[in-house]
Amino acid sequence: SSPLPIFSQDEVTKHSSLEHGVWVTYKGSVYDITEFVAMHPGGNKILLAAGGALEPFWALYAVHNQEHVLEILSQYKVGELTEDDLKKQRAAEPTDPFSSDPERHPVLRINTRKPFNGEPPPEILSDSYITPAAFFFKRNHLPVPQVDPASYRLQVEGLPGGGLTLSLEDLKTKFPKHTVTATLQCAGNRRSDMNKVKAVKGLNWGITAIGNARWSGARLRDVLLAAGFGPDVARWARHVHFEGLDKDVTGTPYGSSIPLSKAVSEEGDVLLAYEMNGEEIPRDHGFPVRVVVPGVVGARNVKWLGRVVVSAEESGSHWQQHDYKGFSPGTDWDHVDFKSAPAIQELPIQSAITVPADGAVIDRSDETLTVTGYAWSGGGREVVRVDVSLDGGETWQVAQLRSGEKGQAPEAPPPPGRAWAWKLWEITAPLPPEAQELEIVCKAVDSSYNVQPDTVPPIWNLRGLLSNAWHRVTVRVRD
Ligand code: HEM
Ligand code: MTE
After folding, report:
1. Helix, strand, coil proportions of the chain in percent (round to 5)?
2. Strands 471-478, 361-363: parallel, antiparallel or unpaired by DSSP?
3. Nearest CA owner, ligand 2 atom 24
4. CA distance 206 to 186
5. Which of 250, 275, 404, 425 could potentially form a cystine with 386 if both were Cys, beta carbons 3.0 to 4.6 Å apart?
6. Is residue 26 annotated as part of the catalytic site, yes or no?
7. CATH superfamily to which 109-340 belongs
8. Over the stretch 348-376, which tens digit does the pLDDT of each residue have?
9. Ligand that lies nearest to the alpha carbon of residue 202, given by its number in the listed order
10. Could you report the predicted ipTM of this complex, rounded to two decimals?
11. Are residues 63 and 91 in contact, defined by beta-carbon separation less than 8 angstroms?
12. pLDDT class for 1, splitting at 50, 70, 90?
């Protein structure tokens, strides 16, 4: 076959729009991706790279760091870039936007390094009722912003009276400090169980994209009242938006919103938190201020909070409108209409087995088996029971629930409807005689008597969210 043509950067630059064709370069090759633009899972953002190099954009979006993405790209190759232009491009390449990210504990299982997404080993997670920050899962969409606490300002907008600007000191001194123990779970927790049924799009989280911490800060309610919230505003306002200080290549911040009713309710316990487990919030978890929305999906708990806006509308953010929504198992990427589904807020009942691990080998001489795990439900619904089976769901036993560290007094029971924290559970049962293999299953029940579905296929969805089927691990018994 004849060699592909060689193009100059000027020639590539001429193809910077759908009208004139969309060309990009990657590692010195030239691609005509005009036809791919409409099919891009990441949407129109792809046009930002039109006429130039993909590298600076892909440096921010680690999803592209996969074999199947390069395969797609290779189909559109039309030529090579001149040596000279390639050299110029390399010289101009930006420094790594993740170079100032904080250090992380080496025990975390890394999903993606840039942005950093990692979760702890299950047996470490269930070791403590309050998850130490180092072991708390980290879910970042973008580089961790560097925020100077002295010049940090929180903007509160959308209220009559022109808004309010608060320093970190203001938040700490002008409002009562309130502490809440709340579990945070990513909507993608246990996505790997969905991936096993049929491939989904997203980070392949195991069972530990969840953690429980003691958060302290000002109540959002108190801040909104100080900023002019009152009955007049309640007549038209419906949502409260949050914007992070982390920004994507277009300068758009991470953002989300929650219903106003949750934000201003005394029972909602929504915090503008500046402490996690009694210490300042670590950078990965939102230093210096993050929103903590107890009972609500992780995605709405905006870190590095820069702006709070009271509004009649939901947030227009990508993460509110085009992600973090649930769909039917029958909906595929060709037919999905994100407008047709509500944004996930409260999460459904969840539980998982942290010990033993899937595939573990147990000695028959042990005679008994101890199984441990966590259980949690969204919306402040309390976990009232966890059932465990050692025979794939034929017979069941009730596990013991715990709301505190092992061997210590449990936390005071929450008022009804405000059970924001998970429960750890444990059961020790005799090993069934003669069994060579055990399928251990757990399922939880919350205070509304919601239960988990027994299998994944009926709740499978293209984004792999809300994965809460009975958790199953198989262990072998060794004689
Ligand atoms: C996601 C391909 C350029 C932003 C994806 C995915 C593919 C893809 C296959 C889905 C990956 C997965 O989840 O497994 C491509 C190709 C490109 C390109 C072939 C160039 C020819 C860009 C550019 C940007 C971008 C230039 C940003 C300026 C995104 C984002 C997502 C994404 C934000 C994630 C969407 C989500 O999480 O739902 N891209 N992409 N892409 N892409 Fe691209
Ligand atoms: N806030 C900002 N500003 N940027 C983010 O990428 N990720 C969200 C949420 N808040 C995110 C954010 C998601 S999807 C989750 S699950 C939680 O933060 C994770 O919080 P953690 O990293 O403290 O565990």
Report:
1. 20, 30, 45
2. parallel
3. 138
4. 11
5. 425
6. no
7. Oxidoreductase, molybdopterin-binding domain (3.90.420.10)
8. 999 999 999 999 999 999 999 999 999 99
9. 1
10. 0.87
11. no
12. low
**Amino acid 177: pLDDT:** 98
Q: Which ligand is nearest to the CA of 463?
A: 1
Range 6-92 classified under CATH 2.40.50.150: no
The CATH architecture one would assign to domain 350-478 is Sandwich (2.60)
Q: Tell me, letter by letter, the H, E, C secondary structure of 225-271.
A: HHCCCCHHHHHHCCEEEEEEEEECCCCCEEEEEEEHHHHHCCCCCCE
Identity (one letter) of the amino acid at 213? A
CB 418 within 8 A of CB 449: no
Q: Residues of 361-378 as b/e, b for ≥16 C-beta within 10 angstroms?
A: ebeeeeeebebbbbbbbb
64 catalytic? Reply is yes
Look-up: residue for tokens 């999460």? 347
Amino acid occupying residue 156: V
Q: Residue 389 above 70 pLDDT? A: yes
Find the residues whose C-beta lies inside 6 A of ligand 2.
136-142, 184, 186, 244, 246, 254, 284-285, 298-299, 301-304
The two three-digit tokens of residue 447, written as one number: 């205070």
